[in-house]
Design a protein that fits this description.
The chain is α+β, with helices and mostly antiparallel strands. Helix content is 45%, strand content 14%. A 4-stranded antiparallel beta sheet has the order 1-2-4-3, with helices on both faces. The radius of gyration is 17 Å and the shape is globular.
Length: 173
Amino acid sequence: MEPDKIFTDRFSCRSFLKKEVPEEYIEAILKAGIWAPSAGNLQPWRFLLITNQELKEKLAEVAYGQEFISEADFVVVVIALPEESAIRYGERGRNLYSIQDTAAAIQNMLLQASILGLGSCWVGAFSEERAKKVLNLEKNEKPVAILPFGFPKEFPPPLRKRKDLKKVVKKLE
C-alpha cells in the first residue's frame, strides 16, 4: 500500500461481510498494537481478543446498541492498566499516559487492518462499568476501546472530508 493511502483508505467500518479473517491477519493486527510507542516503554495495556458470538452481542449492547460490533468477525477490546503507568509517572501516568499509550496501540491496529484490506472501527461510546462486568475485568483494568474487525461490505470507503491544514495548524515562530 502506498504510504498516503494507509491514512486515506482507513475508515470507520460499520458493515462487515460474513467472512472469516485468517489467523495470520489477527496476529499481525495484535502485533501492530504491541509495537506502539508508550511512555517509558511500560506498555500499560492488555488486548482482549473476542470471537465468541454471544460475547460480541453483549459488547454491542453495552455500546448502546451498536449492532455492527456483533457482525464483525472478531473484536479486540483494548484495556489500559493505569497503575502500571502510575508506578513511574504518578498521577500523570495514571490519568494521561496510560490512555495515550493505548490510543497509540489502537491506531496501530486500525492502520494494520487497513493495510490488510480489513475494515475496523474505533468504538469509544460504551458503558465502561457494564463493559467491565461483561468482560469480568479487575478494578485496575480500564476498557478504553472496542475494536470490531472484518472484511468490509463496501470498499473503497465513502469520501470523507477533512479540515484544511490552514485551519488546524498554527505555526509558532
